[in-house]
Amino acid sequence: MKHAQPAAGEADGKHSIQRIAVASVIGTTVEWYDLFIFATASALVFNKIFFPAFDPLVGTLLAFGTFASAYVARIVGAALFGHFGDKVGRKSMLLVSLVMMGLATFAIGLLPDYKSIGVWAPVLLLTLRVIQGLALGGEWGGAVLMAVEHAPANRKGLYGSWVQIGVPFGTLIANLVFLVSNAFMSSEDMLSWGWRIPFLASIVLVGVGMYIRLNISETPSFRQVQQSREQVKVPLFEVFRRNWSQVLLGGIATMSTGTSYNLLVAFGLTYGTQTLGHSRNEMLSVVLVSCALCVLLLPVFGRLSDSFGRKPVILAGIAAEALFAFPMFWLMDMRTFSGALLGYLLMMTAFAANYGPIATFLAELFGAKVRYSGLSIAYMLSGLLGSAATPIITTALLQSTGHGSSVAWYMIGSAILSALCLWLLAETMGRQRQVAMVEGMAS
Known about the structure:
- By secondary structure, the protein is mainly alpha-helical.
- The chain has helices at residues 4-10, 14-49, 56-87, 90-108, 114-117, 120-148, 156-164, 166-184, 187-194, 196-213, 220-227, 235-242, 244-275, 280-308, 310-332, 337-363, 371-387, 389-401, 406-424, 429-442.
- The protein has a single domain (11-442), classed as Up-down Bundle (Growth Hormone, Chain: A), CATH 1.20.1250.20.
- α7 packs antiparallel against α14 and α8 packs antiparallel against α14 (280-308).
- The longest helix has 36 residues, at 14-49.
- The radius of gyration is 21 Å and the shape is globular.
- The protein starts with a helix and ends with a helix.
């Protein structure tokens, strides 16, 4: 009897768990698609459309600065959505964040350019980008908890990694849309109106995500907190009073995932096209193939974390990111399509090992009463430190040194810092299984 109740509480059978996992994947795919079409557009067109009065490299820096602004907003969004997610529920916050992201992205596709309204064009772009950031700050943590809190104790790493698929899959779709657009229109048409298509098309994905998310149930962990009336008044204060070290160390431990991924999907596009002379289609194809590999590998590494622990798998991924940093640029600097592709595949494999188990690991650092807040803030902190800074720092390094390989040192430094902070945190897998057993006995 003590085993039957937790299984029922975690989900209404295997079919329900799988449905929830699919809902999480589709929702996060929509959110990250919206985020990364902005990143792709920043690398390829925004410097010409919204910042045309500047040198191309400076214009790219300004475009990436606008891209980075969302990461500051994500911290605010994490605190805001985390508060209500811990008090009202996971599901409702996921629906709100999805609508916010979708409407902001659609509006970007309608923006006039710099030639039409001058400085108001980048101002409006920045405003909508901030709204995107607020939405994503609440989206990811809620999606992770919907999957992890429903999952059986021995499959939490696997189902947490399913949520992570949204990142490469959303990026894959974003780049595929740009690739198709490039194939069927001239560069002039792409700059004139073609870039708007990926942003406007996102409204279709939002509709699909809303339909699926309306048909999933609240998590057992939050229902238990509700029934026991254990919700805290201000989850954010509780997190920083009791769990500040987990937030800080967890955020820095996750930082290298943002560094490596944005090295591939943001800086790598700019470096490959503007410095190495690859066509936009070639670099988009490289990103496409490497993201497809990542989609396949994330559940593999998530499942491995259920067998060997979260930390060993994540540490292996961080070590591989540092190890492949220089080879990636050596291969790209060969100026061949095959060299760029191999370099990307190596780094993407390392990223997948790091990123696959990290969602479950961060979720398991916090108790159910403040888990939405703690998880979201830690992850968004990592985005601010890693993802937001990477395109700006790497572009500046390229400008000052003239060599892409100088960026490898930045990747190595980020990996070392993440590994040190991860080492200071306790393994969570065994502890969570013990908690699940105690809860099962109590029920």
